[in-house]
Amino acid sequence: MDEVRLWALIEDQGERRPLLTPSEARAAVALLRREGSPAADELAARIARRLPAEQ
Q1: Got the DSSP string for the chain?
Q2: Environment class of residue 23 by beta-carbon count within 10 Å: exposed (0-12), middle (13-18) or buried (19+)?
Q3: Is 32 exposed, middle or buried (0-12, 13-18, 19+ CB in 10 A)?
Q4: Rounded to the nearest 5°, which phi and psi values hold at 37?
Q5: Structural domain count, the chain
Q6: Is 42 exposed, middle or buried (CB count within 10 Å of its CB: 0-12, 13-18, 19+)?
Q7: Nearest CA to 10 among 53, 37, 54, 52?
Q8: Phi, psi dihedrals of residue 48, rounded to the nearest 5°
Q9: Is residue 31 one of the residues assigned to a domain?
């Protein structure tokens, strides 16, 4: 998927639904941060902000 399409998906503010467990979301954040593109970094930050604080 090219970065323009990825940004379009990130910016789409459709209805939110819980799709992942918190541990799955943390794993997704870690993988996105490794990817290194600006779009992946933004998506990782958005997901991370919604995660509960770790115990």
Answers
A1: --HHHHHHHHH--------S-HHHHHHHHHHHHHH--HHHHHHHHHHHHHSPPP-
A2: exposed
A3: buried
A4: -80, 155
A5: 1
A6: middle
A7: 37
A8: -60, -40
A9: yes
Residue 14 lies in a domain: no
Task: Confirm whether 1 is domain-assigned.
Answer: no
Contact criterion met (CB below 8 Å) for 34 and 27: no
Say which amino acid occupies 42.
Answer: E
Which residue is listed with tokens 């509960």? Answer: 52
Reported as a single tens digit per residue, the pLDDT across 2-51 is 778 777 777 777 777 777 788 888 999 999 999 888 888 988 998 898 88
